[in-house]
Design a protein that fits this description.
Layout: H1 7-13, H2 15-47, H3 53-102, H4 105-109, H5 113-155, H6 157-163, H7 167-204, H8 206-211, H9 215-267, H10 273-285, H11 287-314, E1 335-344, E2 347-357, E3 362-367, H12 373-380, E4 388-393, E5 396-397, H13 403-409, E6 410-413, H14 424-428, H15 437-446, H16 450-455, H17 473-485, E7 491-495, H18 503-516, E8 521-525, H19 529-532, E9 537-542, E10 545-550, H20 552-558, H21 561-570
Parallel strand pairs: 3-8, 3-9, 6-7, 7-8
Antiparallel strand pairs: 1-2, 1-4, 4-5, 9-10
Length: 571
């Protein structure tokens, strides 16, 4: 289901918190607006040369009481409004991350990690300020503006007309500049995403950068992205630089008009000196609502830009909805592909593939690059939806098997090894932290990495660093195999995860894995003949089809594609 979020919908999630905060803010504003009235009473009493000190004392206590009231309720609006904004930040970030987890693999292949990180951190941070500080100062500015206007009208309608003469022009100005701020801030956020991605790529690929001496090129690329972000922000600052001074200028115009006409009115006794002083105090107070409304427009427009960027991601729905007929099964792993076809857009990837993988089989899948080997396994895991044909496990169509059952039965180790920052032990137990130390050590021994781990000063507690940069490519691959083995799956699929191993280590790992998985299914996908030659069955693929199948000796006798690839790699 497509989902669209707005600032108002986010605020409504925690409406009671915000309503309580707004109520507290209203009390503070009403108390603040009462101060000039009390000042008017005091000045009028002093003008009349009153000798009633008890009355002056009472007015002074009014001011003290109003100050205490404002202090108490300021605590209230800070807690409820800013606390509500923090709740929005927390829930929105969790919602966004949960949505990302539901999206298909092809979504991430077309998106930069840095861009998604900027959405997760920077855009949601902006929305926190929009929903909290933006709502606060917008309400405060509008409330104070209209009540100050009402108070001045109550004191003197004629003076109110003079004082508020320039404000209609201000409203038009705010509207025009607000739209410009939103557009320029969105460009700034897009540029920040590019900057984040540039930094991420350089840091994650630091081994390659250092190995080939590409530091200068990386600095140049980062400088280019940083300069673009700087320029986008300068364009935003230019608008803000013109916007804010004009906002501050309007109250000064209003005060100048009042001083001229109001001063003449006080001299001509059209208003009392106390009324003149009260209106003057109100106009001084008007500086904050003007600044607040300008600031609120900036924050809310920035929030709109960020919410639009987030909605672009929320609008991406998983291509496959979870089917209502899916059920949990206890599977053994008897797999059958029957006439399976699949395309990436208009490009065929698999053409009428049929293959049986009985329980306990050790199957190798090899062939030319791009022949559909990985795609075949992704269809088995329901990463993509079958276009035609059927896939069954234990004679049950995979459309009826829940993803949980598939995950409990099949463990897939992809070509791109993911190693998380943390210890070696944490990486092996990542999927199931309850796994025992003995199981971890046994899995490491089977994967052929135990001895190297023990050579590290801290053994399994060695921190591998971001993306496992402290490990070699072969060590990362064997770590991923150990992580899979420790789960004891019914079906283990290793997709080209032996490519960084030398022939001797590769042979040892394959022997250990097939022995540990005896009676269960092992599928090894590889372009290297040495990785599949000792398995009980080998399927050879070309152009999305299985063109040969059999044992190593049988395929060599056919002198087909497998034979050609074996001879090519052995020379």
């Amino acid at each position: 289901m497509l989902r669209k979020t707005s600032i108002s919908s986010l605020i409504l999630r925690y409406k009671y918190s915000f309503l309580t905060g707004i109520a507290s803010l209203t009390v503070v504003d009403l108390a603040q607006l009462s101060v000039p009235i009390v000042i008017q009473w005091i000045i009028d009493e002093l003008t009349l040369q009153s000798t009633d000190l008890s009355l002056i004392t009472r007015y002074s206590l009014y001011i003290l009481g109003l100050g205490l009231l404002m202090a108490l309720f300021r605590l209230g609006w800070r807690y409820f409004i800013m606390g509500g904004a923090r709740k929005i930040e927390n829930s929105l970030r969790n919602d966004f991350f949960e949505h990302l987890q539901k999206l298909n693999f092809d979504f991430f292949s077309g998106r930069k990690v840095g861009d998604l990180m900027a959405h997760t951190v920077n855009d949601i941070e902006t929305l926190k300020f929009s929903c909290g500080l933006g709502l606060l100062i917008a309400y405060d500015g509008v409330f104070l503006f209209f009540f100050i206007f009402a108070a001045i009208v109550y004191i003197s309608p004629q003076m109110a007309l003079y004082a508020f003469l320039p404000f209609p022009l201000l409203a038009v100005f705010i509207y025009k500049f607000g739209n410009m701020i939103e557009r320029r801030f969105q460009r700034s956020q897009d540029s920040f995403s590019d900057l984040t991605e540039s930094a991420r790529q350089s840091i994650s690929g630091i081994k390659v950068v250092k190995a080939f001496g590409l530091e200068r090129e990386e600095r140049r690329d980062f400088d280019r992205a940083s300069k673009d972000y700087f320029e986008k922000n300068v364009h935003l600052v230019k608008i803000w630089g013109a916007f804010q001074p004009f906002i501050y200028f309007v109250p000064s115009v209003a005060m100048a008009l009042f001083l001229y006409f109001g001063g003449a009115g006080a001299i001509g006794t059209e208003i009392t000196l106390g009324e003149f002083s009260a209106i003057l105090v109100y106009l001084v107070m008007l500086a904050w609502p003007m600044m607040a409304m300008g600031w609120a427009v900036d924050l809310l427009k920035r929030g709109n830009a960020s919410i639009n960027r987030l909605n672009d991601i929320f609008a991406v729905a998983p291509k496959e909805a979870i089917l209502t007929e899916e059920k949990d099964y206890e599977l053994k792993g008897d797999i059958r592909f029957s006439g399976v076809s699949f395309s990436y857009g208009s490009t065929p990837a698999l053409r009428n593939v049929s293959l049986r993988i009985p329980c306990g089989t050790t199957l190798g899948i090899t062939g030319l690059i791009g022949s559909g080997k990985t795609t075949l396994m992704k269809l088995l895991l329901k990463v993509h939806k079958i276009e035609s044909g059927t896939i069954t496990i234990d004679e049950t169509a995979i459309e009826k098997i829940s993803r949980k059952s598939l995950q409990d039965t099949i463990v897939y180790v992809p070509q791109e090894i993911t190693v998380f920052s943390g210890t070696i032990y944490d990486n092996i137990t990542f999927i199931n932290p309850k796994i025992t130390r003995e199981q971890v050590e046994q899995a490491a021994k089977t994967a052929g990495i135990y001895e190297q781990v023990m050579e590290f000063q801290q053994g399994f507690e060695t921190v591998v660093g971001e993306r496992g940069l402290s490990l070699s490519g072969g060590q990362r691959q064997r770590l991923a195999i150990a992580r899979a083995l420790v789960l004891k799956p019914e079906v283990l699929i290793l997709d080209d995860v032996l490519s960084s191993l030398d022939p001797q280590t590769e042979n040892t790992v394959i022997t250990n894995v097939t022995e540990a998985m005896r009676g269960r299914t092992v599928v090894i996908i590889s372009n290297r003949m040495s990785s599949v030659s000792r398995l009980s069955q080998i399927a050879v693929m070309k152009d999305g089809q299985i063109v040969e199948i059999g044992k190593h000796g049988e395929l060599m006798e056919k002198r087909g594609l497998y034979y050609a690839l074996e001879k090519l790699q052995s020379t």
